Protein backbone atom coordinates (compact mmCIF):
# COMPACT_ATOMS: atom_id res chain seq x y z
CA UNK A 1 0.00 0.00 0.00
CA UNK A 2 1.38 3.41 -0.96
CA UNK A 3 2.10 5.86 1.85
CA UNK A 4 -1.17 7.36 3.02
CA UNK A 5 -0.19 10.93 2.16
CA UNK A 6 -3.64 11.80 0.83
CA UNK A 7 -5.38 10.50 3.92
CA UNK A 8 -7.07 13.03 6.18
CA UNK A 9 -9.34 12.64 9.15
CA UNK A 10 -11.27 14.90 11.49
CA UNK A 11 -10.41 16.31 14.87
CA UNK A 12 -12.41 13.79 16.88
CA UNK A 13 -10.67 10.83 15.22
CA UNK A 14 -7.29 12.35 16.04
CA UNK A 15 -8.34 13.24 19.61
CA UNK A 16 -9.62 9.76 20.46
CA UNK A 17 -6.55 8.14 18.92
CA UNK A 18 -4.14 10.33 20.90
CA UNK A 19 -6.21 10.20 24.08
CA UNK A 20 -6.02 6.43 24.23
CA UNK A 21 -2.29 6.34 23.45
CA UNK A 22 -1.70 8.58 26.48
CA UNK A 23 -4.30 7.21 28.90
CA UNK A 24 -3.59 3.54 28.19
CA UNK A 25 -1.05 3.86 31.03
CA UNK A 26 -3.99 3.94 33.45
CA UNK A 27 -4.62 0.28 32.69
CA UNK A 28 -0.99 -0.72 33.17
CA UNK A 29 0.64 0.84 36.23
CA UNK A 30 0.24 4.63 36.05
CA UNK A 31 -1.61 5.15 39.37
CA UNK A 32 0.93 2.97 41.19
CA UNK A 33 3.86 4.86 39.64
CA UNK A 34 2.37 8.20 40.67
CA UNK A 35 1.94 6.89 44.22
CA UNK A 36 5.54 5.70 44.15
CA UNK A 37 6.83 9.06 42.89
CA UNK A 38 4.66 11.46 44.88
CA UNK A 39 3.13 9.33 47.66
CA UNK A 40 -0.12 10.99 48.80
CA UNK A 41 0.56 13.85 46.32
CA UNK A 42 0.68 11.59 43.26
CA UNK A 43 -2.35 13.39 41.84
CA UNK A 44 -0.55 16.74 42.26
CA UNK A 45 2.38 15.39 40.26
CA UNK A 46 -0.04 14.57 37.42
CA UNK A 47 -1.43 18.13 37.42
CA UNK A 48 2.07 19.60 37.50
CA UNK A 49 3.24 17.50 34.54
CA UNK A 50 0.04 18.31 32.62
CA UNK A 51 0.59 22.05 33.10
CA UNK A 52 4.19 21.79 31.87
CA UNK A 53 3.11 19.85 28.78
CA UNK A 54 0.39 22.44 28.12
CA UNK A 55 2.97 25.24 27.95
CA UNK A 56 5.47 23.16 25.98
CA UNK A 57 2.80 22.36 23.41
CA UNK A 58 1.85 26.05 23.20
CA UNK A 59 5.47 26.86 22.35
CA UNK A 60 5.69 24.03 19.80
CA UNK A 61 2.51 25.30 18.11
CA UNK A 62 4.11 28.68 17.47
CA UNK A 63 7.14 26.99 15.95
CA UNK A 64 4.88 24.86 13.73
CA UNK A 65 3.27 27.91 12.11
CA UNK A 66 5.79 27.98 9.27
CA UNK A 67 5.57 24.23 8.68
CA UNK A 68 1.84 23.68 8.20
CA UNK A 69 1.12 20.28 6.70
CA UNK A 70 4.61 18.92 7.44
CA UNK A 71 5.65 16.31 10.00
CA UNK A 72 8.93 15.86 11.86
CA UNK A 73 10.47 13.80 9.05
CA UNK A 74 9.54 16.38 6.42
CA UNK A 75 10.99 19.17 8.57
CA UNK A 76 14.20 17.27 9.31
CA UNK A 77 14.70 16.63 5.58
CA UNK A 78 14.15 20.31 4.83
CA UNK A 79 16.77 21.24 7.42
CA UNK A 80 19.46 18.62 6.89
CA UNK A 81 18.51 16.57 3.86
CA UNK A 82 18.30 12.79 3.74
CA UNK A 83 20.91 12.29 6.47
CA UNK A 84 19.00 14.21 9.14
CA UNK A 85 15.71 12.59 8.05
CA UNK A 86 17.22 9.14 8.58
CA UNK A 87 18.69 10.10 11.97
CA UNK A 88 15.40 11.52 13.24
CA UNK A 89 13.47 8.60 11.79
CA UNK A 90 15.85 6.16 13.51
CA UNK A 91 15.18 7.68 16.95
CA UNK A 92 11.42 7.62 16.40
CA UNK A 93 11.60 3.98 15.28
CA UNK A 94 13.57 3.07 18.41
CA UNK A 95 10.98 4.87 20.53
CA UNK A 96 8.04 2.96 19.06
CA UNK A 97 9.87 -0.39 19.01
CA UNK A 98 10.91 -0.07 22.66
CA UNK A 99 7.61 1.04 24.17
CA UNK A 100 5.62 -1.33 21.95
CA UNK A 101 7.70 -4.31 23.10
CA UNK A 102 7.50 -3.30 26.78
CA UNK A 103 3.74 -2.72 26.79
CA UNK A 104 3.14 -5.96 24.88
CA UNK A 105 5.17 -7.86 27.47
CA UNK A 106 3.41 -6.18 30.42
CA UNK A 107 0.05 -6.83 28.80
CA UNK A 108 0.91 -10.49 28.19
CA UNK A 109 2.13 -10.97 31.77
CA UNK A 110 -0.95 -9.28 33.18
CA UNK A 111 -3.32 -11.29 31.02
CA UNK A 112 -1.57 -14.48 32.03
CA UNK A 113 -1.96 -13.73 35.74
CA UNK A 114 -5.56 -12.52 35.55
CA UNK A 115 -7.20 -14.66 32.88
CA UNK A 116 -4.90 -17.36 31.45
CA UNK A 117 -2.69 -18.73 34.25
CA UNK A 118 -2.15 -22.05 32.46
CA UNK A 119 -1.24 -20.60 29.06
CA UNK A 120 2.38 -20.00 27.97
CA UNK A 121 3.37 -16.33 27.86
CA UNK A 122 4.65 -16.49 24.28
CA UNK A 123 1.32 -17.95 23.13
CA UNK A 124 -0.62 -15.09 24.76
CA UNK A 125 1.65 -12.46 23.23
CA UNK A 126 1.45 -14.11 19.82
CA UNK A 127 -2.34 -14.25 20.04
CA UNK A 128 -2.64 -10.50 20.57
CA UNK A 129 0.07 -9.82 18.03
CA UNK A 130 -2.36 -11.12 15.40
CA UNK A 131 -4.78 -8.30 16.23
CA UNK A 132 -1.97 -5.74 16.02
CA UNK A 133 -0.95 -7.04 12.59
CA UNK A 134 -4.55 -6.82 11.40
CA UNK A 135 -4.80 -3.21 12.55
CA UNK A 136 -1.62 -2.23 10.69
CA UNK A 137 -2.81 -4.06 7.58
CA UNK A 138 -6.08 -2.11 7.40
CA UNK A 139 -4.25 1.17 7.88
CA UNK A 140 -4.49 4.39 9.86
CA UNK A 141 -7.91 5.44 8.61
CA UNK A 142 -9.53 2.24 9.89
CA UNK A 143 -7.63 2.46 13.17
CA UNK A 144 -8.72 6.08 13.70
CA UNK A 145 -12.37 5.36 12.94
CA UNK A 146 -12.39 2.39 15.31
CA UNK A 147 -11.05 4.66 18.05
CA UNK A 148 -14.08 6.94 17.61
CA UNK A 149 -16.35 4.02 18.50
CA UNK A 150 -14.25 2.28 21.13
CA UNK A 151 -12.63 5.05 23.18
CA UNK A 152 -15.90 6.56 24.55
CA UNK A 153 -16.96 3.05 25.65
CA UNK A 154 -13.58 2.51 27.32
CA UNK A 155 -13.87 5.84 29.18
CA UNK A 156 -17.41 5.04 30.33
CA UNK A 157 -16.27 1.61 31.53
CA UNK A 158 -13.40 3.18 33.47
CA UNK A 159 -15.73 5.74 35.09
CA UNK A 160 -18.15 2.97 36.08
CA UNK A 161 -15.33 1.19 37.91
CA UNK A 162 -14.15 4.36 39.64
CA UNK A 163 -17.68 5.32 40.73
CA UNK A 164 -18.56 1.82 41.92
CA UNK A 165 -16.11 1.92 44.82
CA UNK A 166 -17.43 5.09 46.48
CA UNK A 167 -17.95 3.21 49.76
CA UNK A 168 -14.18 2.81 50.01
CA UNK A 169 -13.38 6.50 49.46
CA UNK A 170 -11.30 7.98 52.28
CA UNK A 171 -10.06 11.43 51.34
CA UNK A 172 -7.83 11.61 54.39
CA UNK A 173 -5.54 9.31 52.38
CA UNK A 174 -4.54 12.39 50.36
CA UNK A 175 -2.77 13.93 53.38
CA UNK A 176 -0.14 15.22 53.73
CA UNK A 177 -0.95 17.23 50.62
CA UNK A 178 2.67 17.57 49.47
CA UNK A 179 3.40 13.88 49.85
CA UNK A 180 7.13 13.25 49.52
CA UNK A 181 7.85 16.98 49.42
CA UNK A 182 7.76 19.88 46.98
CA UNK A 183 11.33 19.29 45.73
CA UNK A 184 10.58 15.69 44.84
CA UNK A 185 7.38 16.66 43.02
CA UNK A 186 8.39 19.85 41.21
CA UNK A 187 12.07 19.10 40.51
CA UNK A 188 12.58 15.35 40.50
CA UNK A 189 9.11 14.82 39.05
CA UNK A 190 9.78 16.89 35.92
CA UNK A 191 10.82 13.85 33.86
CA UNK A 192 7.32 12.44 34.30
CA UNK A 193 6.18 14.65 31.43
CA UNK A 194 7.16 11.51 29.52
CA UNK A 195 3.61 10.45 30.38
CA UNK A 196 2.56 12.66 27.44
CA UNK A 197 5.34 11.53 25.08
CA UNK A 198 2.74 9.86 22.85
CA UNK A 199 2.07 13.38 21.55
CA UNK A 200 4.93 12.68 19.18
CA UNK A 201 2.27 10.91 17.13
CA UNK A 202 0.53 14.27 16.72
CA UNK A 203 3.73 15.67 15.24
CA UNK A 204 3.76 12.76 12.78
CA UNK A 205 0.12 12.97 11.67
CA UNK A 206 0.24 16.71 10.91
CA UNK A 207 -0.01 16.01 7.13
CA UNK A 208 -3.26 14.14 7.83
CA UNK A 209 -4.81 17.12 9.64
CA UNK A 210 -6.30 19.83 7.49
CA UNK A 211 -5.01 23.07 9.05
CA UNK A 212 -2.85 24.48 11.83
CA UNK A 213 -6.08 25.23 13.71
CA UNK A 214 -6.88 21.51 13.67
CA UNK A 215 -3.44 20.76 15.09
CA UNK A 216 -4.03 23.29 17.86
CA UNK A 217 -7.53 22.05 18.69
CA UNK A 218 -6.51 18.38 18.69
CA UNK A 219 -3.45 19.00 20.86
CA UNK A 220 -5.05 21.15 23.54
CA UNK A 221 -8.21 19.03 23.73
CA UNK A 222 -6.21 15.83 24.06
CA UNK A 223 -3.91 17.25 26.74
CA UNK A 224 -6.89 18.60 28.69
CA UNK A 225 -8.93 15.40 28.54
CA UNK A 226 -5.91 13.23 29.34
CA UNK A 227 -5.00 15.45 32.30
CA UNK A 228 -8.52 15.07 33.73
CA UNK A 229 -8.64 11.29 33.29
CA UNK A 230 -5.13 10.72 34.65
CA UNK A 231 -5.70 13.01 37.64
CA UNK A 232 -9.13 11.64 38.56
CA UNK A 233 -7.91 8.06 38.27
CA UNK A 234 -4.89 8.75 40.47
CA UNK A 235 -6.99 10.54 43.10
CA UNK A 236 -9.56 7.76 43.32
CA UNK A 237 -6.85 5.10 43.43
CA UNK A 238 -5.18 6.89 46.36
CA UNK A 239 -8.40 7.48 48.30
CA UNK A 240 -9.35 3.82 47.88
CA UNK A 241 -5.94 2.20 48.40
CA UNK A 242 -3.87 4.23 50.88
CA UNK A 243 -0.18 4.95 50.59
CA UNK A 244 2.14 3.01 51.08
CA UNK A 245 -0.02 0.01 50.19
CA UNK A 246 -0.75 1.78 46.88
CA UNK A 247 2.82 1.24 45.64
CA UNK A 248 2.53 -2.54 45.90
CA UNK A 249 -0.48 -3.17 43.64
CA UNK A 250 -0.19 -5.27 40.50
CA UNK A 251 -2.29 -3.61 37.74
CA UNK A 252 -3.74 -0.96 40.11
CA UNK A 253 -7.12 -0.35 38.48
CA UNK A 254 -7.79 -4.09 38.42
CA UNK A 255 -7.24 -4.14 42.18
CA UNK A 256 -9.76 -1.31 42.51
CA UNK A 257 -12.26 -3.19 40.32
CA UNK A 258 -11.97 -6.26 42.54
CA UNK A 259 -13.32 -4.22 45.45
CA UNK A 260 -16.65 -3.61 43.71
CA UNK A 261 -19.45 -5.38 45.52
CA UNK A 262 -23.01 -5.06 44.20
CA UNK A 263 -24.81 -8.14 45.56
CA UNK A 264 -27.77 -9.62 43.66
CA UNK A 265 -26.95 -7.43 40.66
CA UNK A 266 -23.39 -8.11 39.54
CA UNK A 267 -20.81 -10.75 40.33
CA UNK A 268 -17.13 -10.50 39.41
CA UNK A 269 -17.62 -7.04 37.93
CA UNK A 270 -13.85 -6.84 37.50
CA UNK A 271 -14.58 -8.67 34.23
CA UNK A 272 -15.62 -5.24 32.94
CA UNK A 273 -12.08 -4.13 33.63
CA UNK A 274 -10.63 -6.99 31.58
CA UNK A 275 -12.79 -5.98 28.60
CA UNK A 276 -11.88 -2.29 28.62
CA UNK A 277 -8.26 -3.07 29.58
CA UNK A 278 -7.87 -5.41 26.61
CA UNK A 279 -9.63 -2.99 24.25
CA UNK A 280 -7.55 0.01 25.28
CA UNK A 281 -4.20 -1.79 25.08
CA UNK A 282 -4.98 -3.48 21.77
CA UNK A 283 -5.91 -0.11 20.28
CA UNK A 284 -2.70 1.38 21.64
CA UNK A 285 -0.55 -1.45 20.35
CA UNK A 286 -2.16 -1.20 16.91
CA UNK A 287 -1.41 2.53 16.75
CA UNK A 288 2.17 2.16 17.98
CA UNK A 289 2.86 -0.71 15.57
CA UNK A 290 1.35 1.15 12.63
CA UNK A 291 3.53 4.21 13.28
CA UNK A 292 6.55 1.98 13.72
CA UNK A 293 6.23 0.61 10.18
CA UNK A 294 4.96 3.93 8.80
CA UNK A 295 7.97 5.81 10.18
CA UNK A 296 10.35 3.21 8.75
CA UNK A 297 8.63 3.48 5.37
CA UNK A 298 8.78 7.27 5.29
CA UNK A 299 12.30 7.45 6.68
CA UNK A 300 13.67 5.31 3.88
CA UNK A 301 11.12 6.51 1.29
CA UNK A 302 9.71 3.07 0.54
CA UNK A 303 6.67 2.76 -1.71
CA UNK A 304 4.83 0.13 0.34
CA UNK A 305 4.57 -0.48 4.08
CA UNK A 306 2.61 -3.75 4.17
CA UNK A 307 5.65 -5.95 3.37
CA UNK A 308 7.21 -4.54 6.55
CA UNK A 309 4.39 -5.71 8.83
CA UNK A 310 5.39 -9.36 9.34
CA UNK A 311 9.17 -8.73 9.74
CA UNK A 312 8.54 -5.98 12.29
CA UNK A 313 5.95 -8.12 14.09
CA UNK A 314 8.57 -10.86 14.48
CA UNK A 315 11.09 -8.32 15.82
CA UNK A 316 8.60 -6.87 18.32
CA UNK A 317 7.61 -10.37 19.46
CA UNK A 318 11.24 -11.29 20.13
CA UNK A 319 12.05 -7.98 21.81
CA UNK A 320 9.06 -8.39 24.13
CA UNK A 321 10.46 -11.71 25.38
CA UNK A 322 13.95 -10.37 26.15
CA UNK A 323 13.26 -9.20 29.76
CA UNK A 324 13.53 -12.01 32.30
CA UNK A 325 10.21 -11.30 33.97
CA UNK A 326 7.53 -8.69 34.63
CA UNK A 327 9.61 -6.80 37.18
CA UNK A 328 12.51 -6.57 34.72
CA UNK A 329 10.14 -5.14 32.12
CA UNK A 330 8.81 -2.53 34.55
CA UNK A 331 12.37 -1.65 35.56
CA UNK A 332 13.47 -1.18 31.94
CA UNK A 333 10.48 1.00 31.18
CA UNK A 334 10.98 3.11 34.30
CA UNK A 335 14.73 3.48 33.75
CA UNK A 336 14.71 4.38 30.07
CA UNK A 337 11.22 5.39 28.96
CA UNK A 338 10.30 7.82 31.75
CA UNK A 339 13.77 9.39 31.77
CA UNK A 340 14.30 9.83 28.03
CA UNK A 341 10.95 9.70 26.18
CA UNK A 342 10.23 13.38 26.89
CA UNK A 343 13.57 14.35 25.35
CA UNK A 344 12.59 12.66 22.09
CA UNK A 345 8.97 13.81 22.01
CA UNK A 346 9.45 17.42 23.09
CA UNK A 347 13.18 18.21 23.12
CA UNK A 348 13.91 16.90 19.64
CA UNK A 349 10.73 18.47 18.27
CA UNK A 350 11.58 21.91 19.68
CA UNK A 351 15.17 21.72 18.39
CA UNK A 352 14.08 20.72 14.88
CA UNK A 353 11.39 23.36 14.69
CA UNK A 354 13.65 26.00 16.22
CA UNK A 355 16.45 25.35 13.73
CA UNK A 356 13.91 25.22 10.90
CA UNK A 357 12.44 28.59 11.88
CA UNK A 358 15.90 30.17 12.10
CA UNK A 359 16.78 28.88 8.63
CA UNK A 360 13.50 30.11 7.17
CA UNK A 361 13.97 33.54 8.73
CA UNK A 362 17.50 33.79 7.31
CA UNK A 363 16.26 32.80 3.86
CA UNK A 364 13.46 35.36 4.00
CA UNK A 365 15.87 38.03 5.20
CA UNK A 366 18.36 37.13 2.49
CA UNK A 367 15.66 37.27 -0.16
CA UNK A 368 14.49 40.66 1.11
CA UNK A 369 18.00 42.09 1.06
CA UNK A 370 18.68 40.81 -2.45
CA UNK A 371 15.46 42.45 -3.65
Automatic annotation (TrEMBL):
<feature type="transmembrane region" description="Helical">
    <location>
        <begin position="334"/>
        <end position="355"/>
    </location>
</feature>
<dbReference type="Pfam" id="PF03845">
    <property type="entry name" value="Spore_permease"/>
</dbReference>
<feature type="transmembrane region" description="Helical">
    <location>
        <begin position="217"/>
        <end position="240"/>
    </location>
</feature>
<feature type="transmembrane region" description="Helical">
    <location>
        <begin position="40"/>
        <end position="61"/>
    </location>
</feature>
<dbReference type="InterPro" id="IPR004761">
    <property type="entry name" value="Spore_GerAB"/>
</dbReference>
<feature type="transmembrane region" description="Helical">
    <location>
        <begin position="272"/>
        <end position="292"/>
    </location>
</feature>
<keyword id="KW-0813">Transport</keyword>
<protein>
    <submittedName>
        <fullName>Spore germination protein (Amino acid permease)</fullName>
    </submittedName>
</protein>
<feature type="transmembrane region" description="Helical">
    <location>
        <begin position="82"/>
        <end position="103"/>
    </location>
</feature>
<feature type="transmembrane region" description="Helical">
    <location>
        <begin position="185"/>
        <end position="205"/>
    </location>
</feature>
<feature type="transmembrane region" description="Helical">
    <location>
        <begin position="147"/>
        <end position="165"/>
    </location>
</feature>
<feature type="transmembrane region" description="Helical">
    <location>
        <begin position="304"/>
        <end position="322"/>
    </location>
</feature>
<keyword id="KW-0812">Transmembrane</keyword>
<dbReference type="GO" id="GO:0016020">
    <property type="term" value="C:membrane"/>
</dbReference>
<dbReference type="GO" id="GO:0009847">
    <property type="term" value="P:spore germination"/>
</dbReference>
<keyword id="KW-0309">Germination</keyword>
<comment type="similarity">
    <text>Belongs to the amino acid-polyamine-organocation (APC) superfamily. Spore germination protein (SGP) (TC 2.A.3.9) family.</text>
</comment>
<keyword id="KW-1133">Transmembrane helix</keyword>
<keyword id="KW-0472">Membrane</keyword>
<feature type="transmembrane region" description="Helical">
    <location>
        <begin position="123"/>
        <end position="140"/>
    </location>
</feature>
<feature type="transmembrane region" description="Helical">
    <location>
        <begin position="12"/>
        <end position="28"/>
    </location>
</feature>
Amino acid sequence: MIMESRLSFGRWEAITLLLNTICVQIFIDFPRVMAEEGATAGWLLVLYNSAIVFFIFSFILKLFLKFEGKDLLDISEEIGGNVLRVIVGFFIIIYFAFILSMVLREFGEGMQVIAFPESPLNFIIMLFLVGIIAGAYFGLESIARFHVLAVPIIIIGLLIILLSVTQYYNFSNLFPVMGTGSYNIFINGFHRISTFSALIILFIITPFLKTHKDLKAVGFTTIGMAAVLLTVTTIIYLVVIPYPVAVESFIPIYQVARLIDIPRIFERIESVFIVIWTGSILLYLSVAFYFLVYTFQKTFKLTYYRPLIIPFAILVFNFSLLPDNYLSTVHLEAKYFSNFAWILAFGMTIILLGVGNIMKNKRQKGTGESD
